[in-house]
Specification:
The chain is α+β, with helices and mostly antiparallel strands and about 350 residues long. About 35% of the residues lie in helices and about 25% in strands. Helix 2 runs antiparallel to helix 7. The structure holds adenosine monophosphate and magnesium ion.
Length: about 350
């Protein structure tokens, strides 16, 4: 285990025992694994331990399957095959991968290219989160930027064949695949008759039902300027997913400047539109994941506009001046706990 993984693991442990207080009658059956580039924690509250363990086992197998199909950080995957065949051949993919690609392309369009699933060449150039992270030359960025265009991904619904138009183009599902995995874990738990659970995929939270005592789950909103586990606010939810994109997730600092992992596809540089954290609250984690990344890149005004155009989607946006903006739907259930942050609306 690398130091970073160990640290995230320890923080999750602390979170487990502090953040989500539980006065339970049911047992807690939990498992923590490392997959999809992050620490994944599944907590099930149920009287039937065997049933819960089976559900966890099936979830782990499913996460592994998703990772094996969609990761670009492995020797081989369906997405890697698509990338290797860019500008050459269509590649037939599984229903799974096709669904996530389709969703990712839809959100690329909906966000007007703020989210762009073809961002991979730029992500790779920066190498943020890897040992090769560096600030590229401007020319390197501009020469790769014309490869970034979600419209160049052809999706053939009748055959599940997929092709990128130009050689050198490549897909990165890092901004959406964890969301899909969250939805899939939820589906598996429900199929196993589990109705109370708290799932955390490296900051992407999925909740099932209420807590055992009938109260809401309390989700801490990470202080983007503070240490991990340092919350600025608490959000109460029932049966919702809460997904955050933040500049503190993956970054490096050079000459006092923070370079983080969310890239603005228009510039090829880490997004600097005034947001330091964007959280989406909705039903499906795949939607929340794509939207949290989209809003981060869009900035406050356009981001809020996008969220307000959608049904049943709420957001918490923190700007670099420590103002916090929330949508109408969260007014009753959102509380700031760090008064150096100001609720702006
Ligand atoms: P998230 O943490 O969900 O906001 O996703 C960030 C991850 O998505 C990065 O680590 C990249 O793999 C990928 N990514 C970065 N910028 C973008 C973007 N503008 N559109 C889509 N994916 C992106
Ligand atoms: Mg995302």
């Amino acid at each position: 285990m690398s130091k970073r993984v160990l640290m995230v693991f320890l923080i999750l442990l602390v979170l487990t025992f502090s953040g989500c207080s539980k006065e339970k009658t049911s047992e807690v059956i939990s498992e923590t694994i490392y997959a999809l580039g992050t620490v994944i924690d599944i907590q099930i509250y149920d009287e039937n331990v065997d049933k819960a363990k089976k559900a966890i086992q099936e979830s782990i197998e499913r996460i592994t399957e998703i990772e094996n199909k969609m990761s670009v950080n492995k020797d081989i995957s369906e997405v890697i095959l698509i990338n290797e065949n860019a500008g050459e051949n269509p590649v037939q993919v599984s229903e799974d991968t096709f669904y996530v690609l389709k969703k990712a392309k839809e959100y690329s369009k909906l966000s007007n290219g703020a989210f762009d699933l073809t961002i991979e060449p730029i992500v790779k150039l920066w190498g943020i989160g890897t040992e090769d992270a560096r600030v590229p030359e401007k020319e390197e960025i501009t020469s790769l930027l014309n490869l970034v265009n979600y419209e160049d991904l052809k999706l053939d619904e009748s055959t599940n064949k997929v092709q990128l138009n130009k050689k050198g183009q490549a897909i990165d599902l890092g901004g959406i695949a964890k969301g899909y995995a969250g939805d899939e874990i939820k589906r598996i738990l429900l199929e196993n008759d589990i109705n109370t659970a708290f799932i955390n995929l490296g900051g992407n939270v999925v909740t099932l039902g209420t807590k055992v005592d009938g109260s809401s789950w309390r989700i801490g909103i990470q202080n983007p300027l503070g240490d991990r586990g340092n919350y600025i606010a608490v959000l109460e939810v029932v049966d919702k997913t809460v997904v955050t994109s933040g500049n503190y997730e993956r970054y490096f600092i050079e000459d006092g400047k923070r370079y983080h992992h969310i890239i603005n596809p228009k510039t090829g540089y880490p997004a600097e539109e005034g947001i330091i954290s964007s959280t989406i609250v909705t039903d499906k984690s795949i939607d929340a994941d794509a939207l949290s990344t989209s809003v981060y890149v869009l900035g406050l005004e356009k981001g809020m506009e996008l969220i307000e155009s959608l049904d049943n989607v709420d957001a918490v946006i923190i700007t670099e001046d420590k103002n916090v903006y929330i949508t109408e739907g969260l007014k009753e259930t959102f509380n700031i706990v760090d008064d150096s942050f100001i609720l702006a609306n």
